[in-house]
Every structure is written in C-alpha cells, then in structure tokens.
C-alpha cells in the first residue's frame, strides 16, 4: 500500500484537543502522512518525511472524514409528492413509511443496490467517509434480510430496524409483529451481518414496552442498541435508550428537562438530525441545552425518502449552526467525533496517530466555511482508508 503525504495544510482539524488548539485540536501549517491505511505522522509542513505520493493542499483546511451515523439508504421509489404536500401545509406523521415499504418490496436486489450506491457516492463526494445504513423498509423476514445484506456490501455499520412501523398485513396485531421481529426476523438479521438494532419508539410506531422487549432481545443476541427517540413528540424513547445504555438516541427533537439530564448523565450519545426538521418543517432539537448540560452530541443526515432526503453532512452542519445555536466548531466536532462516539468507534472521526486514513480537504481555509458558505460544494478532495478517491 502506498503512503500519502498531505502537506501545506493551513488548518488541520485533528479532532482531539490533546493534538492542537481548542476543542477541535487545530494545528496550523501542518502536514500528515497516511501509511497502511492509518495516520502515521503529523508535523510541520516545513519538515516532512518522504512518502510515495504527495498532495499539496496550498493552505486549505483538512478535517477528519465525516461520520454519518444515521441513514436509511435501502429503499425503493421516492416521496416527492408527499414533500410537496407538506410544504403546502400538511403535517409529517411517519405514515408515508408504508408507501416506501411497498416500493422497496417491489424493487429487485439490483435496483436497491444501485440506489444505495448512488446515495453512498453522493455522500462520499460531500466528505462522508463512514456511513451507518439501516434496514426498515422491508418489514418481512426476507425483505429485512436482503436489505441488510445489501447494506453490508457498503458498510460494516449496518442496523436492523425491523421495528420501524407495524406493516399493513399486521394491522391490529402488533404483538404478533413484535414476536416476528424478536424471533425469525432477528435471526435472519444476524445472519445478514447486522451490527446494531434500532426501534422507532413513538406513538403510532412502537411503545416503551414493545421497544424495550425488542431492544433487549437484540442486545442479548449481541447487537448494539440505538433508538429513534422523541422525534415527533415527547415520550419514553430517550429514557429507554439511556436505561439500556444504548450507543445513541436519535432525533431528540422533543425533550423534557429530565431527558436532557438523563442524556448528560449517561453514556448515550444524542444524535441530532436537522435534515428531518428542515424537511418536515418542525422545530429543531435543543442542541444548545444538550451541549450546555454536558451531553455528547452527534450530527447525522437521517437520509431517507420521507423525512430527510439529503446525504449532505455540510448541509446539516450549516443547519446546526444557523438554526440550533451550535458554534461551527461544535457542529464539526459533532459530525466527526460525535458520529464516531455514536457508533462506539475511536479509530474514526479524528486525525491523530493510529486513526484511519479518512480525511477531507476543503476548498476553503477554515472549517468555519462549512457553515459560512452554505450550499457551496467545498469538499475538494476525499481520502478514504488511505486512498485518494
Ligand atoms: O428517521 N422516524 C422514523 N424513520 C425515519 C423516517 C422514515 C420515513 O418517513 O420514511 C426518520 O425520520
Ligand atoms: Fe431515521
């Protein structure tokens, strides 16, 4: 494997305060070498070792690759008409999930695979080097298993979301559907390589008891726990996530003071998904209160055809800064170290010795430009696993 020197970095965001100034650990006029897929050397641009290849970034900012810890890329069809109706005044309820379940079941494997590949490439071009991908639009044993198998072709961070909603054929038989999820569907999900289990804990989806039952049996089977929590209303999701020591409680849009205290006091990351609030015209999550209380915050896209059809972490960073009172540094940290924490990983989301060689070069001198220049394609180069892509 060839080593790569990245040099003349005006602002290197290491993501670790031990490695530079401030919470982002910023170093100026820096250089780094990626060798054997890992960051091997960090130092001054005036004093660089020899490497097989050299990328001179001419004073630009270099950041850890973005970690998108929440997406739903395996689906058929789209829901542009539902979005247009919402922008004309209709409310988002999650009812459209069943529309996508129908389109996903009707698609063949190659169509689903091509859709994931298209969206994964879109994300990569915008600086995302790690992406979690959920199932959840199959909702039968066979369709959840194939969704996870296809997701696994693109990432090791795959999540079984059989408990997204109760599918139409189980209407008024929620207990039977929960038994299916906890039994044969979970077995098939594990065989398909799922690493995580997730539940949409919300009125109209799964209540606290069903959610706890599903997540507990998943954890007992060796899967890590994540929860779609408090998206559409206050409810039990966040408290359940903290109780089960879930890696992440996702959405966190409607939080009580007790929810914020629980997240600040526990090991569960609060993953905020402002693309969903943007696309459903909803109030944004209370990021400032979470950060001030000491919670660990991640930012992710929630990319899906219903509530948030974006693959762009830079867009989410801009929303977090403008609409959620996060500073640019907090937003960048949440999209890198925060995402890594939400996946319980310490080899990504930072650029320090031994970290994976995943980085982005901005067409800008500072990370601040990600929010300062919204909607502008600022990612000029991406290095994934030590290779320039
Ligand atoms: O995270 N909330 C549940 N699931 C998705 C939305 C899915 C959809 O509308 O298709 C979300 O926002
Ligand atoms: Fe989601």
UniProtKB/TrEMBL annotation:
| Pathway as given in its UniProt record | Amino-acid degradation; L-histidine degradation into L-glutamate; N-formimidoyl-L-glutamate from L-histidine: step 3/3
The residues listed in the UniProt record as binding Zn(2+), with positions renumbered to this chain, are: 70, 72, 228, 302
How cofactor binds (record note)? Binds 1 zinc or iron ion per subunit.
Where, subcellularly, is it found? Cytoplasm
Annotated binding of Fe(3+), by residue: 70, 72, 228, 302
> Where along the chain is 4-imidazolone-5-propanoate bound?
79, 137, 164, 231, 307
| One Gene Ontology term of the molecular function aspect | zinc ion binding
Top-level EC class as recorded in UniProt: hydrolase
| Reaction catalysis annotation | 4-imidazolone-5-propanoate + H2O = N-formimidoyl-L-glutamate
Q: Which cofactor does it need?
A: Zn(2+); Fe(3+)
Q: What is its EC number?
A: 3.5.2.7
**Keyword Iron attached:** yes
Q: Which domain of life is it from?
A: Bacteria
Give the HAMAP family listed for this entry.
HutI
Q: Which family does it belong to?
A: Belongs to the metallo-dependent hydrolases superfamily. HutI family.
Protein name (Swiss-Prot/TrEMBL):
Imidazolonepropionase
Q: Gene of origin?
A: hutI
